[in-house]
Design goal:
It contains six helices and 14 strands. The chain is of the alpha/beta class and 253 residues long. The strands form two sheets. Strands 6-5-4-3-2-1-14 form a seven-stranded mixed sheet. Strand 2 and strand 3 form a beta hairpin.
Length: 253
């Protein structure tokens, strides 16, 4: 199974619009971060995690073949704004979206034209599949366990597949949810910036402490702002086994 970071940036991306800092002016591709999204692939199955406003360009380099499912972490714009851009994949059939009830309701409000009795030509055909935290489900041969975390006051979903877990936009996690991470060896988790507390996101120090508590052998930090600094330099400041992810990074699971 292969996992690809399509985007590792926070809601504004990097470079940040209107910013002229050294990181935003960097020519290093690893300092350029599109909005957070990821792709999971096996020989037979392809799953997208989130579909933000950069998804068209994020998927352009990949072979054009069926998406077997789209996992949504939550309804915020930087994670769902590109769903309409998935319409070309409808040549392979309906697009199957897996999300909690709150996210599903949000999609019906923000994309009402996709859920009318009579769809006009060209509208993406979306099949919504309600999922719940702590209740596993399958997309083809892949078993997925949704895990509830808190994005400030908003309950959102992370996902566990075998000994791999993907969590973004987390601020806190309930102890019952944390127990579901027992045995995770490869962890992806959000780390907004080094300093200045945020009401709904973890800082780098929080993410490091979380990763150590999980006990994963390797951890990748994502959903990063330009305040992380230059990728290559920032990575040297992290403990062994933890590193900043970058757009296009692929790992084997």
């Amino acid at each position: 199974m292969k996992f690809t970071f399509l985007g590792t940036g926070t809601s504004g991306g990097v470079p940040s619009l209107g910013c002229n800092c050294e990181v935003c002016r960097s020519s290093n591709p690893r300092d350029k971060r599109m909005r957070s999204a990821a792709l999971i692939e096996t020989d037979t199955t392809r799953i997208l995690i989130d579909s933000g406003p950069d998804i068209r360009m994020q998927l352009m380099p990949f072979p054009f073949r069926k998406l077997d499912g789209v996992l949504l972490t939550h309804i915020h714009y930087d994670h769902v704004a590109g769903i309409d851009d998935l319409r070309p994949f409808c040549v392979f059939g309906d697009i199957h979206i897996y999300a909690n009830e709150q996210t599903e309701n949000g999609l019906r409000q923000t994309m009402p034209y996709c859920f009318t009795p009579h769809l006009y030509p060209g509208v993406p055909k979306l099949n919504l599949h309600p999922i719940e935290a702590n209740k596993s489900f399958h997309i083809n041969e892949i078993e997925i366990l949704p895990i509830e975390v808190m994005h400030g006051a908003l309950p959102i979903l992370g996902f566990r597949i075998g000994d791999f877990a993907y969590i973004t936009d987390m601020k806190t996690i309930h102890e019952d949810s944390f127990k579901l991470l027992n045995g995770v060896q490869t962890l992806v988790v959000n780390a907004l910036r080094w300093e200045k507390e945020h009401h709904s996101h973890m800082l780098v120090s929080d993410a490091i402490a979380f990763a150590k508590r999980v006990g994963a052998s390797r951890t990748y930090l994502t959903h990063l702002t330009h305040l992380i600094g230059f990728h290559d330099e920032a990575n040297k400041l992290l403990p062994e086994g933890i590193e900043f992810a970058y757009d296009g990074l692929q790992i084997d699971l």
